[in-house]
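Form 7-S
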Amino acid sequence: MKELIPLVNKLQDLSTKIGESLELDLPQIAVVGGQSAGKSSVLENFVGWDFLPRGTGIVTRRPLILQLIHKRSGDTNYAEFSHTGNEKFEIDEIRDEIEEETRRETQGEKGISRIPIRLRIYSPNVLNLTLVDLPGLTKVPVFDQPKDIEYQIRGMILEYIRKKNCLILAVTPANTDLANSDALKLAKEVDPEGIRTIGVLTKLDLMDEGTDARFILENKLIPLKRGYVGVVNRSQKNIDGEMNIKDSIKAEKAYFENHDVYHDMANKLGTSYLQCILNQQLEIHIRNTLPDFRDKFLMHQQKLHDDLKKYRKYLMIDESSSETGLLMQILKELRVEFDNAMGNFEYYELSKTPNIGCKIFDILHTKFPSQFSRITYHSPSRAEIDLAIKNIRGYKVGIWTPDIVLKALVKKQFNEFKLPSFVCVDEIVQVLCDGFHLYTRNLSHFPKLRDEVCGIITSHIKNREKICKEVLQQFIDIESGYINTNNDDYKILLNKKKRNSHVQDDHDKVKIYVDTYLEHANKTVKDFVPKAIVWIIIDDCKKFIDTELPNSILQNKNFLSLMEFSQDEKKEYDEIRSIYEACTEALEIIGDRPPVVESDFKPATQIQQPNIATTLWKRIMIFFSKCFLNETN
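Output:
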C-alpha cells in the first residue's frame, strides 16, 4: 500500500489540472481547530521545517492542501506549488510564496478564499501524507473582515470535512475545556459517531499546575473511535530562541517520558506517533474506499477507452500499412455512414434526429407534391378558345374542333411545371451537401483530407444537379412537344370528366380537353421528378464514393499532406491517453485488495495498563531519585 498514497497525490494534481474530467473524492486529512490552537505547529512538526505563515488573527486564509512525499535518503529537500508548474522552491521560500499567492487571490489583508493552494514537499524526512490546513475558527470579525466571516470559515471547513472519506484532525488546546472545543463540535456535526475523527491535544505543557489530560487521552471524556493523541509544540519563546523542529521533537519526547502522569503512555504520544498513526489511518481509509475507487476508475477508464478507439485506428498504423490503405478504410467508413444516413438498419441514432434519407423522403413525397398541387393553371376563357379556333380555321369553314387548338392551349401551361421541379432539386442538393459535411466526422482527424473530400463531393453533386435540371427541362419540353391524346390514362380521365360535365358547344369541349390533359400531365411530371433526382443524383453519389472519389484523391499531387493528422486532435488524443494510462496504473496498484474491517490503531484506553504495585514502585523510585539528586547538588 506504500505506493498508493503517492498515486492518490498524483491523481489529486491530475484532477486539478483537468477539471471535471476526473472528479474523485480522494482521501485527505483535514486539520480543523480554532485560532491559535496549534494547527500550523502540528503541520510544521510533520514536515520538520518552519514554512507556514505566522502572526495574529486569521493567518491561514485559504485552504492549504499539503502533500508530503517521501524521497530516498540523500535526496535534497524541495517544494512545488501547482500554480507555479515545475518551479522548485527552497523550504525557506515557501512562506513568502504562500503569503503572496494568498494576497493575490483574496485581494485584501484579512479576507478569505475557498480556492486552495496546493503544495508538495519532497523530503526523506517525511511520511507520505496528504493534509488540508484550513482557516482557524473565529467568532468576531476584525479590521476589514466581512461581518459573516464566522459563517464563511465554517462553510469552507464543512465543504472539506463533510466528505465521507475525509479524516478529521480535530486540534484542541489541552488548557481549554474540551467540551467547548470548536473543532470537536464541528467534527461531530458531520461525524457524530466519531468514526473518522482523530483528536489532537496541543499545549499539554501549558496546563495549570496539578492538572493533566490523561482522562481525555484515555478516550473517556468525549470518546472517539480513533481516540486522542497528545503533542507538545514549540512555544513562542522557543521559536524566538530559534529552536529547530528536530530539537523540538526531542524535547517533546523527553517531556512525555519524564512526566509523572504521561511517562507510561509516552510511546503513544507525541508528533512522531501522530505521524505514524495518520499515515496508517490514511492507508486503512484508502484501502476501505478501494471498491468505490475501483468502480470510479473502471467507469472512467471505459469512457476514455471508447474515446481512444476513434483515434487509435487512425494513429496506430503499423509498418505494413500505408496512407492508401488508410484512405480506403476512411472512405469505406464514409460510405457506411452515408448508407446509414440514407436509411439503414445499422443507423444507431434512430430516435434522435431526422437523417438524410428521412429529409429526402419528406421533400420528394410531401413537400414537392404539395407544391405541385398548388400550381395555378390559366384556364382559357370562352373568348380565348373562340379566337384560337378561328385563327386555326382561318378563312375555311370547319365542322369539328381541330386538335391543334388543344395543343396550343395546353403547351403554354407546361412552363408552370418547371419552377417546383427545380426547387425540389435545389432542396435535395442542399440536404446532401449539408449531410456530407455532417457525416464526414470521421475525417475530422484529417482536416485537409476532410476539406478535399467535401470539396470533391460538393462539386460532383453540383454537377449532377445541373445534369438533373437539364433532364427535367428536356422531359417537360418532350411532354409539351407531343400532346398524346391517345394515352390510355388520359382517355380514362377524359371520359370520366365528360360523364360528369354538361357539354353545350365546342368551347365547353375544348375546356374539358385542356383541363383534363393538364391534370394528366401534372401526374406524369410529378411522378418523373423524384425518379430522376434519385437516379441522377442520389444513386450516383453512392457509386461516386465507391469508385471515382478514391481515384480523385489519389491523383492529387499533395495526397500525402492530405493524410496529415490534425494537431489539435493529436493533442487531445495524447491528453486522453495520459489520463487513461493513469487510470490503468491506479487499477493495477489497487488490484483486488480487500477492505480492512478494523483499524490496527488502539487509543490509549486499549493500552495494557501496568498493575498498581508496578506503578507505585516506579513512582517511589522516581521520588528517591529526585531526592538523591537534590542532596548531591
